[in-house]
Amino acid sequence: MKNILDRNQNKAEEVRSLLRRRNVMMVNIISSPGAGKTTLLERTCEALSARMGIGVIEGDVTTDRDAQRLKKYNIPIVAINTEGGCHLDSHSIYRALENFDLDSIRLLFVENVGNLICPSQFDLGEAFKLAVVSTAEGDDKPAKYPMLFSGARAVILNKTDILPYTNFSMDAFLSDMNVINPRIKIFMTSAVHGEGIREWLEWLGQQLEAYNAG
Amino acid sequence: MHELRIATDLAEIVERYASEAGWQVVEKVNLTFGQFIQVVPDLFEAAFREATRGTVAAGAEIDIEIIPAEMRCLGCGAPYIPAGDLHACKSCGSEEIDLIHGKELYIKSIEGG
Ligand SMILES: Nc1nc2c(ncn2[C@@H]2O[C@H](COP(=O)(O)OP(=O)(O)O)[C@@H](O)[C@H]2O)c(=O)[nH]1
Ligand SMILES: [Mg+2]
Ligand SMILES: [Zn+2]
Q1: Which residues of chain B does A123 touch, with a Cβ-Cβ cutoff of 8 Å?
Q2: In chain A, what percentage of residues exceed pLDDT 70?
Q3: How much is the ipTM here?
Q4: Which of A171, A202, B12, B79 would suit a FRET pair with A71, their CA atoms being 20 to 30 Å apart?
């Protein structure tokens, strides 16, 4: 039995051990287009970039708008052009890493291509995957995209501020999530207004601590 | 379209295998995909045809077995059956529950000569 994606998997392990050695925790962020990945990164950089080295690999590039939005935090950003591809792979991450000074960053975010299926099949060598979904997309995401949620350590349900204007059922969302991955950590945020961001940052800090201890 | 990438990587593996074995033709490729991989068989086959065009694997039949998803308690091995708000194993209370089937992406065998 040979794993078909061995080539990607082997490079991912190489990335993982390289980052492990350099004490850089990489977080692979996966969502549909527009769920709020970049906005979430803005809130996260705003809170943390003065205190610790943060880097971003921007893979969701149709334009350089997302990179422009993050530039104001004075962090290193490397954009990967997937040329219309639906996901990043470990080889492109490996190449992107050459453009970072790994000694100066502790936390590296990858904003993956906006898509819920393809990116969840490709290990990039991350410490963990973070899924982001927004209330505007409906509550059926866990049921429809089980691979992503079963492989993610945490999920952020974003755009809670518009919850009253949607037919999103929190009960359905949470119980489906429990079927797919009972261990997943769930955050509810409004990345534009700031609700729930503190909880996310606190948890992220704990993950970083555990990573550096492990 | 992760089918495209998976099919492309598969084509590469199959062609290398056939060339190392000195085969003239690949007749059949037997695959095991987990339910969570969400491969659309028709799309996958079309992508494989595209990737193997003009090679020894061009006419190979593709057989895909889909394995249903299955979760188990890592504490006691009991199957995990989700029930309401309970996030733990019903048999032993452990919260260490994992997906043991559903993410397979394997080549079972390659036939040819
Ligand atoms: N109402 C609301 N809008 C949001 C929230 N987070 C992001 N947005 C908006 O959703 C749009 C897409 O966000 P963006 O961060 O670019 O999504 P990405 O494609 O996942 O990076 C932008 O117009 C954001 O201002 C939120 O919590 N509430
Ligand atoms: Mg973005
Ligand atoms: Zn148990």
Answers
A1: none
A2: 100
A3: 0.87
A4: A202
